[in-house]
Structures are given as structure tokens and as C-alpha cells.
Amino acid sequence: MPTTVFTIANQKGGVGKTTTAVNLAAALAEKKIHTLLVDLDPQANATSAIGVEKKAGRSLYGPLHGEGTAVEMITATDYEHLALIPSEEDLAAAEIELAQTENYLLRLRAVLEPVRSSNGYRVIIIDCPPALGLLSMNSLAAADFLLIALQCEYLALEGLGQILRNVERLKSAHINDNLELGGIVMTMFDLRTNLSRQVVDEVKQHLPDKIFTTVIPRTVRLSEAPSFGKPIFAYDALNPGSTAYRSLAKEVIARFGLKEGAAEKK
After folding, report:
1. How many CB atoms lie within 10 A of CB 237?
2. If residue 182 lies in a helix (H) or strand (E), which one and from where to where?
3. d(CA 235, CA 199)
4. Is the pTM of this model over 0.70?
5. Over the stretch 65-116, which tens digit does the pLDDT of each residue have?
């Protein structure tokens, strides 16, 4: 089975993007789907949230500049079937330096191609910076599907149109003709407020075939887990956030035809 690449993006910070990247990756790994999480955010939140220590020279900064390979950067995690390409602060410089390179929007795709062609991973999940800069645009150019983490508040809806327009620009410029909106994950859902329900209903009205049925609740334990370097399943297996991300993983598996144990890790 070919490798499927998802990028989880949103130009707005604090919407549960990294939380979704980490916990969706961990939930797929629980299902014995060999998954590679790629931390493309210079803040390296996904790296620390999965319990991996940041180390100089272990990010994709070098490979993006033609020094070393993505395969060499793959790091084991404490979780079976889940590996990581970490991030570190040097990736921040890549935002500026990539613009001076040839085919600057296609650098990440080229770097990840050997990983894809190895069939070592059924799924690659890319966690982007909270901005539509060159790193995020590279991730969109390298992905098969965009997953948008959207916070259940009205201001979040304003950014939805912007990121969808960027997808269309990449396609019309033939940077990534195959990129599709894979789905919208509604995050930080608060059962106590009408606002959360209204925002979900509005997204359903505009993109009924793209929104996932699972909504991710706002819970203290879910926001605490990254500071302990653990996915929610390892931090609090009975938390509603655990249930939600396991449910989301089932939807992703069904929607994209991901078969459990479909790739052999190299």
C-alpha cells in the first residue's frame, strides 16, 4: 500500500493543531498503522509532546538545504508503530532561506520522497507552524490531504477561507495538483456553550462532506498531557479526549482506506 501524507495546518495558533497531530498519530499507531510524525514547527511542540528531547542537527533543516536525508532524522518514540522526525529552533531560519533556493515550494516533497518510496510508513503526518509561511506551504505541496484543525469559535471561521484559497492557489499553479481537503477536525468543543454547537453547525452547512463527525472536547487533561511528554492515551486513557481521538482515528482509517499494519517499518 502506498504511503498517505497528511498535513495538519491552520494559520491561527492555539487551535489544537499540534494536539491533533500528536494524538491522531498516536491513535493510528495504536491501530498498528506504521505512522511517522514530522514536526515542521520551529517551536518543536510536537517533538516535546511526544516525549522526545530536542537535539541540534536532528530536524529537517539540513535535508531541506541538501545536507543529510530525512531518513537519517527519523527518531524512535516510546510508542510502537510511531516514529518522529523532530524539530528544533534552526527550522525558523528555513522560512527565510528557502525563498533563496530553487523550487523552494517543493523542497519538503523532495526530502520526504525517499521515506514515501521506502513503504516503511503507511501514514506520514506533518505538523505545521501556526502561519502560512514557506514551511507550511511546503507541507501543503508535499501532502496528499490537508486536515484542518478548527477551534469552535467564530474567529476561527474567518481563517478557514484563507487556507482553502491557498490550497486552490497551489493547485492552479500546478505545485500540487493532487492536494485535497481531507477533512476538518473541530477542536476545543465546549458542551456548556451554544457557541460551540453553532460553529460546528455552520461548518457542517458549508462543508458537510468534509467535517469529521468526531468533535474534540476542551479538557484540562488534554491540554496538560504535552507538558508531560505524552499523548493523551498515555497520560489519561479514560479522559474524554482519549475517546475522541480514538474515534477520530477510526474515521480517518475509514475515510482514507488505511489498513491496519499495511506497511512494514524499515
Report:
1. 11
2. strand 180-189
3. 29
4. yes
5. 999 999 999 999 999 999 999 999 999 998 889 888 888 999 999 999 999 9
